[in-house]
Amino acid sequence: MTNSKMNVEHPRSRPWNDPKVRTLAFQTIAIAAVFWFGWALFQNTLNNMESRGISTGFGFLDQSAGFGIIMSLIPYDATMSYGRTFWVGLLNTLLVSAMGVVTATVLGFIIGVARLSSNWVVSKLALVYVETIRNIPLLLQIFFWYFAVLRSLPSPRMSVDMGGLVFLNNRGLYLPDPIAEPGFGWVTAAAVIAITATVVMQRWAKKRQLKTGQLFPSFRVGLAVVVGLPLLAYLATGGPVSWEIPALQGFNFGGGITIIPELAALWVALSLYTASFIAEIVRSGILSVSHGQTEAAGALGLRSGLTLRLVVIPQAMRVIIPPLTSQYLNLVKNSSLATAIGYPDLVAVFMGTTLNQTGQAVEVVAITMAVYLTISLVISFFMNIYNRAVALQER
Amino acid sequence: MKKRTSLAAITALTGAMLASNAMAATTLESVKEKGHVQCGVTSGLPGFSQPDEKGSWTGIDVDTCRAVAAAVFGSGQSAEFTPLTAKERFTALQSGEIDVLTRNTTWTLTRDTSLGLNFTGVNYYDGQGFLVNKKLGVDMASQLDGATVCIQAGTTTELNLADYFRTKGMKFNPIVFDTSEQTVQGFAAGRCDMLTSDRSQLAALRSKLNDPSSAKILPETISKEPLGPVVRQGDDQWFNVVKWALFVQINAEELGITQANVDDMKKSDNPSIQRLLGTTGDMGEKLGLSADFGYNIIKQVGNYGEMYNRNVGPGTPLDLERGINALWTEGGIMYAPPVR
Amino acid sequence: MPRPSELPPIKEIGAIGWMRKHLFSSWYNTVLTLVSVYLIVTLIGPLLNWVVFEATFAGSSSSDCKGEGACWLFIGQRLNFFIYGFYPDALQWRVDVMFGLLAVAFAPQFMERFPARKYFGLFGMTGLPLIGYFLIPGGWFGLEEVQSSKWGGLMLTLILAYVGILAALPLGTVLALGRRSDMPVIRGICVVFIEVWRAVPLITVLFMASVMLPLFLPEGMNFEKLMRALIGIILWQSAYMAEVVRGGLQAIPKGQYEAASALGLGYWKKMGLIVLPQALTLVIPGIVNTFIALFKDTTLVLIIGLFDILGAVQSTITDPAWQNVAIEGYVFVAFCFWVFCFGMSRYSQNLERKLDTGHKT
What we know:
Structural class of chain A: alpha+beta
Radius of gyration of chain A: 28 Å
Number of strands of chain A: 8
Number of domains of chain A: 3
Mean pLDDT of chain A: 84
Largest interface: A-C, 51 and 54 residues
Largest sheet of chain C: none
Helix content of chain A: 55-70%
Distance between the termini of chain A: 38 Å
Number of helices of chain A: 12
Mean pLDDT of chain C: 82
Strand content of chain C: under 5%
Number of helices of chain C: 15
CATH class of the largest domain in chain C: Mainly Alpha
Number of strands of chain C: 0
Shape of chain C: globular
Oligomer: heterotrimer
Largest sheet of chain A: 4 strands, antiparallel
Shape of chain A: globular
Structural class of chain C: mainly alpha
CATH class of the largest domain in chain A: Mainly Alpha
Strand order of the largest sheet of chain A: 1-2-3-8
CATH superfamily of the largest domain in chain A: MetI-like
Order of helices and strands of chain C: HHHHHHHHHHHHHHH
Distance between the termini of chain C: 50 Å
């Protein structure tokens, strides 16, 4: 019973009843509507900006910024351009996000496993932690960590002195800064070689395990190589690193590496908050692995720690990865709350001060949104690759 | 059928997007029509605009707005307030969401010319200063090389600070907070060596410290910050109303008219007072207001001095001397053109 | 004569047995237990002291707070502002009515055996917002008008979250259907819309809504600030809602779609009568979870100068008449949020468990 036959026997179906025509028409209308809508927005914006005397364009990015920023991973001072403030803010956002992702993951896994611990006190503590932290707005928690911790630290002149190398006060944590001297290239090269070797070795070990079933202590050997080889190179070249020790200069410490309290507070708050969600994800992931797997592993004589590491977690990962990805994305987005405590992230510096000074709201916000979109696409992309790697290989 | 409704909705929405019905009438007419003046204020700045226990707004900026409401409606209560952040204040005015911006806003050339706005006058002459911890043993701003500074995110504050330190060849570490509460907390917690803001605010912020005597305000003023009401450009009638509401308050102080004696003053034979209170002349009519608009302002809000003393003057938590905000006849620079 | 079976050794039963099994099963468990107990004991004591024993509850001003503990007096004095914002005293009964109706609609949802609780929930989704629409702003039926700039505190937080989620639900459903549509253009538009909104932080969205929206609109057309914030929240939330609904759509077995088509139902009837009712019931826990997330996120509106409960507290702790009440204020807000969020998450977990058993094959 094909269409053509029907057409012969019956009066021609009206074009607006033909699904193909309807589909096409509907889509055309949708496209037209979207473009019309977009065009109207664009026109309105242009008209409004013109009538309010707001200039357009990205020329402002080259103008001198004229304001200071407390923390920058790249050289920056007030004479540099607004474009430079964008990079300063972006790098600060990426820094706190990366730090947060790592600690939140570690902490989340520990608490998630603790939730399932046979130890009653430990599992109840984990439960209380999760239920308290995730039901209180993050913004409040950031305020708490910033102001509560800041008040309990001493002033620069009364710093906590750790061996004359590390100092802690209410302006931050000061660490010695390593400065490379000639010959340091060898150490870098050794590190690169060690990491490559470890990756190759891990592949080989995995292949061998699949083939022969023999375990190779790849983690311990890898660790030894990654730490040992650069250390050897360092010693062989006669220690080509000098340390810049922080010292009290005037009101504050100078020299060395500084971890400012804003960064620390934001980091702690983001990690603790996200960890409470990751813990629940890990817990449900582990619970999703059928009990038979654990019993089978026990029957094979695996200790409970090994069972968790070799049998349960790898299978749980399949359930864990997709929601974990969205938690990472949330963490990156939540890092924009930095603006509330004065950590100079992208939103605080670029969408805050730079926007205030230039008044180029449309351009600045468009750039900011594009950056967040890119970050989240990149994270999704890598997590998808990883997800594919751990996904069940069904035959 | 559903499809048709959704299509209709889209069309209607897009139609609304494109429809550009021109601004209705003048601001004064639309204000009279809706029955109140809508003012943009800060979301909480002691002495300037802050909600009190009962949730009603108080402050010198609030009173400046109430004076406009009294001029138009005869009642200071006919003013409504929209709290605004520094970032959104100008758009709120441009878009017509508010009628007057009385939000602690500095009058600068750029703002007066490039935003489509007009400043109508100055209700407080301010300047940026420094608050430092006494323990540092600093007496002058020039000793602050290398200091960490807590700043409240504003628009002129950060630039003034950077300019000042650059011209002196000194270094500083800025920490920028969003609200004044966070700025004080940061300073109180010892995060910064000093705090910079408009001088009027430094006093209020210091009063928030556990031990206000542990901090002091340095003598230097590093910028000029004339603060005043702002209106949209292109509506001269409304511009005049807002401008003269403030001028009337200043003139009233000069003439000795107060909230308490305004009824008696109506019987005064001083022609200046008669013109200001509307017992003779047609001053109100010229502005498009009732003849007794001046009387209403003073009766409802008081003269400039009363407004100052009530909100920021000696005895209030801010405890600010009149200084340059005193009348020109008393050594200050508050001066208003005559009502005639 | 059969010997009575021996009782298990005392080490295995009762409190001791339980403790051996759950607290001291191995040396590291023992260490963990001891460390945890030590932590709990050292934390709880000072906390209780601050919250209860040394705290000030009664008095009239800042000077009455002398002890080392919390100054709850401050919260009591400003409670009205924290709940109603600038809403006029004489008209606060309107808000109270809404609070009451909210409780009537949703309290039964926590009681398993409550008769016809479904209809109470339905009322909460339809009648309640309708009544609120007339009652809160007023200006109808002789009710005095209250401008939205006077709304604040807990009431505003609830309005933002409730309206946000309610309006986002239909929009999100349409987007989810669009994302699963056969038409590539519709699918593309929906995917782009969803992914863009999901990628950007709420701060950016709120900022755009409060500062830039007036630039996008034709001259003369204008929304109030609260309305603008709501528009931003709804668009942002609808993208999240779309993903939740999509999960429900995917969970409906293919047979249901096919059976509906076999009956000759068109697309809208198939979706409206067969698929969506099942899918939406399935995702109620997901909807509650997004609501919790949104509820917490509404605190961000303080950054655009709206007085939600956190904003109201923040603006009053700068009052020079009170010293050092910041922590009390923050703890109060944290407690309010915790009560709401914890209650809702319990509800959604229960529901999830129930739906789960119903659908497991």
